[in-house]
């Protein structure tokens, strides 16, 4: 029987011993064979950085890259690569080789749960970095407004400063949470969620409600990400984490399956996934249960700013399952044949 651990070598060994091909499906979250996105990125970056693609025609380069990916992950290299969507169905990802920061996705919409392996090459066509992100993360990077199926909802404040929209977690989560759970000293907010270390939603509400009235410096609208980072830091401290980490992946505090949104306007940007979606989330199974987007807890903080300081005035906490019972969804979407996503200048930085 295949052992399930989080070390890179075990993932490769597990896949090699399974004798699966890149086309054989794996259940998302399988503790032995599914490689979570952070580990997938680390494995591919470690194995492929330094490889030269110099002198290769585009079609040959694509084939060579896919061969290197197979070897890096422990898969046998097929005699020929099928034109599947995505190209690597087993681990549910596509590959893109990028010399510029303009990512182009042709003739299909971004898939919210698909992984996108983005391989950066330098001017000499040598691989210098590999990043792996989900479609929903890519959607957050778009500043052109051209992406398809970006969902939005409306936050209508009430007289109450704090609202617990769902008094209980989803039925699947109720068996996994633990009242009064203590975080291990080594726990990281971006670590994989674990059985019986997940706080129930009512305890999260009690802890995070204390942040109402909290203030932090406003570094300006062009630094929206840093506003969010300031809030994330406060949340990590409030929940008892010894350090603050935010890797830009969904959900923000992965260890507690908690997504955080800072609202200075009523429009809630949701990216490519509806909160009540029953699609599986890219995390390892917890207590033998596959986690879905609708199981994630959403913490929304409404805030005001005077241009110098941000003040948290209202707090809302909901499961993804109950999200639209309080925050009505906007309707409509834009259709495009070709998506161009300008990657941030620091996208390939650690």
Key phrases:
3-stranded mixed beta sheet, globular, 350 residues, 7 helices, 5-stranded mixed beta sheet, disordered N terminus, 2 domains, alpha/beta
Describe the fold and architecture.
By secondary structure, the protein is of the alpha/beta class. The protein has 2 domains: 8-148 and 335-342, no CATH class; 151-325, no CATH class. The chain has helices spanning 8-18, 37-48, 58-73, 135-141, 171-174, 201-208, 224-239, and strands spanning 93-98, 102-106, 115-121, 127-134, 151-154, 162-164, 215-217, 258-263, 267-271, 297-305, 309-319, 338-342. Strands 6, 7, 8, 10 and 11 form a 5-stranded mixed β-sheet that branches. A 3-stranded mixed β-sheet has the order 1-3-4. The chain has a two-stranded antiparallel ribbon with strand order 2-12. Strand 10 and strand 11 form a beta hairpin. Helix 2 crosses helix 3.
């Amino acid at each position: 029987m295949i052992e399930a651990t989080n070390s890179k070598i075990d993932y490769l060994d597990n896949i090699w011993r399974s004798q699966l091909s890149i086309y054989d499906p794996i259940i998302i979250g399988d503790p032995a064979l599914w490689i979570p996105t952070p580990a997938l990125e680390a494995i591919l970056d470690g194995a492929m950085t330094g490889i030269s693609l110099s002198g290769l025609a585009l079609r040959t380069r694509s084939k060579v890259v896919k061969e290197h990916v197979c070897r890096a992950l422990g898969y046998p290299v097929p005699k020929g690569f099928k034109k599947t969507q995505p190209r690597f169905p087993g681990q549910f990802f596509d590959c893109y080789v990028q010399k510029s920061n303009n990512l182009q996705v042709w003739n299909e919409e971004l898939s919210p749960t698909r992984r996108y392996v983005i391989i950066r090459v330098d001017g000499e066509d040598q691989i210098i970095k590999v990043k792996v992100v989900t479609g929903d993360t890519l959607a957050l990077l778009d500043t052109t407004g051209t992406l398809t199926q970006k969902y939005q909802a409306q936050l209508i404040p009430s007289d109450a400063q704090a609202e617990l929209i769902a008094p209980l977690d989803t039925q699947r989560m109720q068996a996994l949470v633990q009242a009064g759970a203590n975080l291990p000293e080594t726990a990281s907010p971006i670590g994989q969620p674990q059985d019986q270390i997940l706080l129930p939603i009512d305890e999260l509400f009690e802890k995070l409600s204390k942040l109402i009235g909290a203030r932090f410096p406003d570094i300006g609208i062009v630094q929206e990400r840093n506003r969010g980072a300031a809030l994330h830091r406060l949340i990590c401290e409030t929940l008892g984490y010894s350090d603050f980490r935010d890797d830009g992946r969904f959900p923000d505090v992965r260890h507690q399956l908690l997504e955080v949104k800072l609202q200075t306007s009523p429009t809630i940007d949701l990216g490519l996934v509806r909160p009540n979606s029953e699609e599986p989330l890219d995390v390892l199974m917890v207590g033998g249960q596959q986690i879905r987007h609708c199981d994630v807890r959403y913490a929304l903080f409404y805030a005001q700013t005077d241009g110098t300081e941000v003040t948290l005035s209202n707090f809302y906490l909901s499961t993804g399952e109950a999200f639209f019972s309080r925050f009505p969804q906007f309707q409509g979407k834009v259709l495009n044949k070709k998506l161009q996503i300008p990657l941030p200048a620091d996208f390939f930085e650690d």
